[in-house]
Amino acid sequence: MCFKDFKVFLVFLVVRIASIFLVQTFFVPDEYWQSLEVAHKLVFNYGYLTWEWYLGIRSYIVPLIYAALYKVFQVLSLDSASNLIFGPRVLQACLSAYSDVCFYRWSGTKKWAVFCVASSWFWFFTGSRTLINTLECALTSISLSKFPWPGKGVDESSSFIWIIALLFVIRPTCALMWVPLCIYHLTFSKKSLLNLVMGHYLPIGLMVLILSVLLDSICHGSFIVSVFEFLKFNLLRDIASFYGVQPWHWYLSVGFPAILGINLIPFAVASMIIIKNRTAHPNELVILGTIIFTITGYSFLAHKEFRFLLPLLPLVLYVSSRFLSVWSRKASNFHIWVVTGIIFVGNVVPAWYLGMVHQRGTLDVMEPLREISMTNVKETSLLFLMPCHSTPMYSHLHVNVTTRYLTCLPNLNSIENYIDEADLFYNDPSQWLRLNFPVNGTLPSHVICFDVLVPYISVILSGYQKIHQIYHTNLPISKRIGRYVVVYERTDF
Ligand SMILES: *[C@@H]1O[C@H](CO)[C@@H](O)[C@H](O)[C@H]1NC(C)=O
Ligand SMILES: *[C@@H]1O[C@H](CO)[C@@H](O)[C@H](O)[C@H]1NC(C)=O
């Protein structure tokens, strides 16, 4: 068990719990819409499910974890909005801290391992978020620590195969990273190939798959294999590219350097040393190969995101932390402090900016909206005129008010010249508003949008007054996003 190093666990726990309070910004919609919102709907019976859940391309395993927590809150009448928001993050932070200790053990219980993991800006930024990728990264670290790396004296148990199987049903794309490592396992294991495949991989994989299909079918209400549906939609029909297409080299030129930041330097130096002395570092060579293989595989998919690289982070930090601890044995104290200082500052800056400053308005706005909704549940109706899923929803409101937001369903029925609702709206806001809110119809009590949109929706806002203006970001990532989130209230409300 990784808990043998209890003091180190406490250090990591402090860091991960701190990140709950120091990371206050919006990252991606999936953090809420593929986890908390689903759990909220399961437990409290109201809320939105996105199209993924109607088609059954996601496994219910992760939402069920949060739903279990929500259920406990509900039973104990502790289901306040702040518990619903922070409870799941505390849960994930604890698991992340545990996975950090596992990483520490795996990489040879070195101080540099503690430092590299605790200071990694991207892991600080994501380690306490309710993203599936965060869970995936934590489970990956745990699994890597149980992997029977040759020369490490780890007993060859199959516990890591259970975790890989679980990872696969949660997020099938993780196969890309584990295929090279599992093939490596097959080549060095003392057990025969037949024994490994028929006695371990296949039965464990099947057992986990059957359990997950059972679980998903119960939650979905009919028989469904979400892994299969996921692959069908994302790979065969390439629905994901509806949400943005990046050039093939994006992971190499943007994604990978960005999530590593300053850690790219020790990683690059370590990689060169490993490649030069290949025969002396067989495990590290396989790790490098796995990183390259995974990035290459992901590069073939048109839709690319930073968070997809998250499970590679333990591999990268393993390589760089081991290199740093070998280097520090010969280096002077002064040099060690300089390097530590540079790595620390190089990570603190992006962690602070992205965690505290950039894109915080869409989360901050939920609190005043919750207060408005609670004081007048019946009459309140919230209209979000923002790119789809710009904010969380019922997991943060926790009031059964009427809400309406612009949807962005992909073209599931292969309609020609398909335009989603959000694009339709942005092409001509006044036209869309006239169609959806006819002059004599009831208007929503509140309109929530970015400041940049205000001049385009004057047709509706004449009967409203601005009641909140909330800072969002200095660097809007698209023309539809502004520096402020504004809330307008109908004057006769
Ligand atoms: C939530 O509100 C909607 C619309 O007012 C209503 O139909 C539904 O029954 C409510 N759900 C719960 C669980 O209160
Ligand atoms: C809509 O409202 C206007 C004035 O506010 C009124 O003159 C008109 O008759 C109304 N139309 C309908 C269909 O109710």
Structure description:
With 493 residues, the protein is mainly alpha-helical. The chain has two domains: 355 residues, no CATH class; 130 residues, no CATH class. 60% of the residues lie in helices and 6% in strands. The protein contains 23 helices and five strands. It has a five-stranded mixed β-sheet. Helix 5 packs antiparallel against helix 6 and helix 5 runs parallel beside helix 8. The N and C termini lie far apart (58 Å). The mean pLDDT is 94. The protein binds 2-acetamido-2-deoxy-beta-D-glucopyranose (NAG) (2 copies). One 2-acetamido-2-deoxy-beta-D-glucopyranose binds next to loops. The site of one 2-acetamido-2-deoxy-beta-D-glucopyranose has 3 residues, from loops.
Strand content: 5-15%
Overall form: globular
Main beta sheet: strand number and arrangement? 5 strands, mixed
Strands in their spatial order, largest beta sheet: 2-1-3-5-4
Low-confidence stretches: none
List each distinct ligand once.
2-acetamido-2-deoxy-beta-D-glucopyranose
The computed structural class is mainly alpha
Rg, nearest Å: 24 Å
Helix segment tally: 23
Mean pLDDT: 94
Number of domains: 2
| Beta-strand segment tally | 5
How widely separated are the two ends? 58 Å
Subcellular location: Endoplasmic reticulum membrane
Enzyme class: transferase
Pfam families: Glyco_transf_22 (PF03901)
Family: Belongs to the glycosyltransferase 22 family.
